[in-house]
Amino acid sequence: MISKFQKRKLVNYFNLSASILVTVFGLIMLAWIMTVLFGKGFEHINWAVFTEMTPPPGAAGGLINAIVGTLLITFFAVLIGTPVGVLAGTYLAEFGGKGRFSSSVRFINDVLLSAPSIVVGVFVYAILVKPQGHFSGWAGAIALSILVIPVVLRTTEDMLKLVPVQMREAAAALGAPRYKVTIDIVYKAALSGMFTGLLLATARIMGETAPLLFTGLNNQFWSLDMNQPMANMPVVIYQYALSPYEDWQNLAWAAALLITISVLVMNIIARYSLKQPSSR
Amino acid sequence: MSTTEKDINVRLHTQSAGVIWDKVFKGTSFAFAAMVLIVMLAIMVMLFKEAWPTFAQFGFSFFYTSEWDFAGNKYGALVPIIGTLITSLIALLVGVPVSFGIAIFISVMAPSWLKRPVGIAIELLAAVPSIIYGMWGLFYFAPWFANTVQPFMTDNLGGLPFIGQFFQGPPIGVSIFTAGFVLGIMIIPFIASIMRDMFDVVPTALKESAYAMGSTTWEVVWKVILPYTKAGVIGGVMLGLGRAMGETMAVAFVVGNSLELNTGLFYPGATIASTMANEFNEASGLHMSSLIALGFMLFVITFLVLSLAKWFLLRLEKSQQGDET
Q1: Cβ neighbours around A183 below 10 Å, total
Q2: Which residues does chain B have within 8 Å of residue A177's beta carbon, measured at their own beta carbons?
C-alpha cells in the first residue's frame, strides 16, 4: 500500500525523469542529423566543388555556379528587404505607438514571419514569372526579400524600443528634428541589434528552397544574369538528392553541408552580438 | 534691422527644412509599414485570382473529391488536405510532449550552467534548413524506421480492432507517418522556446509559495506554472501547428508523393505543400491553377491558425501586464 505522500513523490520522479528523457531525445536527434550531415558532407567536399560547374546527369563536377547564384540571390534579397523592414520597424517603434494601424502591421508581420514560404514563391511566380514568361534570378531575390522583411522588421522594432526615451529627449532638447534624432541617435545606439536582425534574416533565406523552385529555378551553366534562371544551392540540393545518380547525390551532400555551416555560423554570430548590448 | 530680419528668415528656413524632412521621414517609414499589409493583401488576391479557374470549374467539390487526374483534367484536393491534417496531427503528438519536457527541463530542473548550452542546442534545430531534414529523413531516418519501429508497430498494434488498420503499409520508409514524425522534430525548437520563455516569466513568489506549502516540483509545474501560462502554451502549440502545416521541403522528401487515399499511416501520401513542390514544374493550365488553389487554401488555413496563435500569446502578455500594475 502506497501512501498518498509516496504516490506524489513517485509521480514527481516519473514525470521529471520523462522530461530529462525527452530532452536527451531532442539532443540525440540534433546529434544524429549533424553527424550524418558532417560525415557525408566532408567526404564529398573537394577542390572541384569550388572550381567546377554543376555536372550533367551521372558525371562528376562542382557547385561553383550554384554557390555564386545563391550568394547573388541572397545579396539582392537582403538588399531589397532590409530597407523595407528597417523603415517599417522604425515607424512602429518611433511613430506608431499602440494605434490601430501599428497593431495590425505588427499582427500581420508576425503571421508573415511563420507563413509557408512556398506560398510566397507562388505569389512571386504569379506576379513576375508568369507575365515575363521565364524564371529569373530577380524573381528569386524578390521572393526571398518578402521573407527578409518580417525578420528585420521585428528585430528593428524590438531593438529601437530598447533605446532609452531619455536619449531621444536629450537630442530633441538640443533642437534636433525628429528624423535626426532617429537616424543619428537611435539608430546608432541600436546598430548592433539591428545588425543581428540582418544576420538572422540572411541565415533564414540562405537555405530556403520552396520559393526558389517557383522563381529562380535552376541553371546548369555559369550565369551572372539576374534576368535569367539562376543556379542556386537549395534547388541543386533538392534536384540532386532526389536523383538516381550517385555523383549528384554526393554533390547534394556537399552542398547541404556548405549551406548548413553558413547558416549555423550566422546564427551563432547573431546570438553572440545580441549578447553584447545588454552587457554594455 | 535688416540683419535681424535676415537672421529670423534663416532660422525659419532651417526650421522648416527640419519640419519637411521630418514629414518625409515619417511618411516614408509609414509607407513601408503599410507595405507589409499590402504584401499580405496582394498575396491573398493574386493567389485567389490565379486559382479562380479551378474554383470556377469544380466549385466546392474541389475540397471533397479525391480524384487528381492530369489526363482527364479533373482535380480534387481531398487527399492532400487529409495528408496535411494527419501529418500535422502526428507532428503535434510527437512535438508537443517533447517540447513541454524540454521546456520544463531547461526552466525548472537544469542547473544554471546547463541551461544555456541545452537551450542553444535545441534552438540550433530551428536553424537547420528544412531541406537538410528532408535528406536526413529520406536517406537515414526512413530506412531505419522501416526496418525497426514500423514492423514492431505493425506486429503489435496492427492486429487490434479498428485502430489496427492505421498501422499497415509497405516497409519502404517513406510514408505519412515518417513525414509527421520529421515535422514533429522540426517544430520542437519553436514550441519549446516559447514554452520556456513563458515558464521563465512566472513570478518567483508564486512558485515559492507552492514549494513552501510542500508541493513537489511536478505539482508546481502542473498546478502553478501551467495554469498561469496556459494561453501562451496554447499559442506556442498553435504556432508549431502553423509551421507544420506549411512546411514543404522536408515533407516532399519523405512523404512519398502519392495521391492515393489510404487508411494506413505507413503508406506513401501527400500534403498540400508537397504536392505543390512536386508538380509545379510540369504543370500548366488547369493543373497549374489547381496547384495554386492548393496554395491559396494552405495560406488561408495557416493564416487562421497563426492568427489564433498570436491571439493567445497576446492574451497572456496582457494578463501579465495586468498583474504587474
Answers
A1: 14
A2: 18-19, 21-22
Say what the pTM is.
0.90
Considering only CB atoms, A36 lies closest to which of B19, B42, B136, namely B136
Per-window interface: B 4-33 vs A, CB < 8 A: 18-19, 21-22, 24-26, 28-33
Rama region for A212: left / alpha / beta (φ>0; ψ in -120 to 50; rest): alpha
> In which band, very low, low, confident or very high, does the pLDDT at B142 lie, cut at 50, 70 and 90?
very high
As a whole number of angstroms, the distance between CA B103 and CA B112 comes to 14
Across A2-16, b (16+ Cβ under 10 Å) vs e yields: eeeeeebeeebeebb
Contact A271 B125 (CB under 8 A): no
Contact residues on chain B for A107, CB-CB shorter than 8 A: 307, 310
User: pLDDT of A182-239, one tens digit each?
Assistant: 888 899 989 888 998 999 999 999 988 888 888 877 777 777 778 888 888 999 999 8
CB–CB of B280/B291 below 8 Å? yes
Q: Tell me the HSE value of A110 on the side-chain side, using a 13 A CA sphere.
A: 20
Which neighbouring-strand residues pair with B68? B75
Contact A88, B16 (CB under 8 A): no
Closest CA to B49 of A242, A126, A86, A157: A126
Between chains, do A114 and B105 touch, taking CB under 8 Å as contact?
no
Helix axes B2-58, A117-124, angle to 10 degrees: 100
Which residue on chain A is closest to B43 by alpha carbon? A123
Closest chain A C-alpha to B32 CA, distance in angstroms: 5
Cell numbers for B46, please give them.
493574386
- Kindly give the interhelix angle for B78-104 and B272-279, rounded to the nearest 10 degrees: 120
Handedness of CA B72, A120, A204, B193 (dihedral sign): negative
Contacts of A127 in chain B (CB under 8 A): 42, 46
Instruction: Name every chain A residue with its beta carbon within 8 A of the beta carbon of B14.
Output: none
Residue A256: list chain B partners with CB under 8 A: 131-132, 135
Which has the closest alpha carbon to B120: B51, B196, B67?
B196
Under 8 Å between Cβ of B140 and A32? yes
- CA nearest B100 in A: which residue? A19
